Amino acid sequence: MTERDQDTTETDGEPLDLADQELVRDPFTAYAPVRERGRMVRGRVRGVDLMWVATRHDDIRTIMSDPRFTIDATAVPGASVAHRTEQTWQARGMYAGHEKYLRAGIFDADGTDHRRLRGLVTAAFSPRRVAALRPRIDAIAAQLLDRLPDHAENGVVDLVEHFARPLPITVICELIAVPEADRDRWRARSATLSAGVCGEELGEALAGMVEDARTLIDHHAAHPGGDLISELLSPRHRDRLSTDELVALITNLVVAGHITTVNLIANSTEALLTHPDQLALLREDPTLMPYAVDELMRYCGPVVRALPRYATCDTTVGSTPVQAGDAVLPIVSAANRDPAAFTDPDRLDLGRTRRGREPHLGFGHGAHRCLGAHLAQEEAAAALTALFDRVPDLRLATDPKDLRRGTNPVNWHLKALPVRL
Ligand code: HEM
């Protein structure tokens, strides 16, 4: 029996500092010792010891789908410090009084309200509707690739700036029909909201996006079209959600679907360029692409951790006693490299999914599993297909170890991806 098989847990000792630069730099392998150290370890954010940290695949699946845990901190009396920290931010005015628009209820509610809100938009993100968007996504990717040589300096282009970044926001803006002239503003605000900044900058971006969303709703109410907002304003749906809920939903879709997908495209491109054997497999057999995207989500998925879950009762995870109100933070990047769930987990193996295996948790699991997963996968597939078809000699313009990564502890991302065409 390995130490891992024993139901270990670590309640003593220094809490894990989630801002530790080693964990932030490489959340895939740096969590390995944590995962082995104990089933659940105490964690610390901004100097406050506030939660349990879960790193194992099976535990995270449980925490995300078992009614003993909820995403809704307000539903649990005495919900832990994690939630109180958020309240402190609100009290300090970090969200410019617009905090209610940050998490739309779709992210932080469970039960009836969550089902109602999610039910209103599920169809728009179904595999069928997403597949119908593919020609448009291909066209956007092709247009960006056409312009790529214009951005080259000494033969080098930054693929993050000129390819990965503009693609997803253009798709979302088309989905909700944001006028072309306004798209740069939406893109900048969304990037600020995902950048982990706080204070005035965050408040301004949020207030601006809320105002833009209201203007957009008024516009679509007066001039209905074939977009998602017009659909939600139609008589079939209109009385099923309030205007505030619609504003929050728009804000959430833009923020959740933008930077995440940018980072998936950039991380995946880097992974393929640094694993030429895997890229060759993909080139030989384009039908591998959907499986490849799934494996890339597991191997270098952009979201390090999901939202905290709160225990609804005194319970245990394995033998770890968890008290009602305790927060548990699911580290999905650690779960996706858990050797108990994946054979040879640190190896990029594009054929893995085709052979069948545990699903990765990069899009979460259970009732809150990513609503936009099909869209994100379709965008990544379209982007990678177009890029490697159009630029067969694509190669990194720098040593992989010199690539600069951001220090956002939630979104694992490249600051730039310099390539030669
Ligand atoms: C939820 C990741 C793209 C919309 C989630 C969750 C994860 C995730 C991990 C679950 C959070 C939790 O349970 O705590 C990602 C990644 C993406 C991506 C890695 C890209 C690679 C998108 C896109 C959209 C979107 C394109 C829509 C345009 C949402 C929404 C939720 C969600 C609305 C909340 C669902 C709910 O709570 O019921 N996403 N996402 N995401 N995602 Fe995504």
TrEMBL record:
Keywords: Heme, Iron, Metal-binding, Monooxygenase, Oxidoreductase. Residues 1-20 are annotated as: Disordered. CDD domains: CYP107-like. Residues 8-20 have a biased composition (Acidic residues). SUPFAM superfamilies: Cytochrome P450. InterPro entries: Cyt_P450 (IPR001128), Cyt_P450_B (IPR002397), Cyt_P450_CS (IPR017972), Cyt_P450_sf (IPR036396). Transmembrane segments: none annotated. Pfam families: p450. The keyword Oxidoreductase applies. PROSITE patterns: CYTOCHROME_P450 (PS00086). It comes from the Bacteria. Belongs to the cytochrome P450 family. This is Cytochrome P450. It comes from Streptomyces amakusaensis.
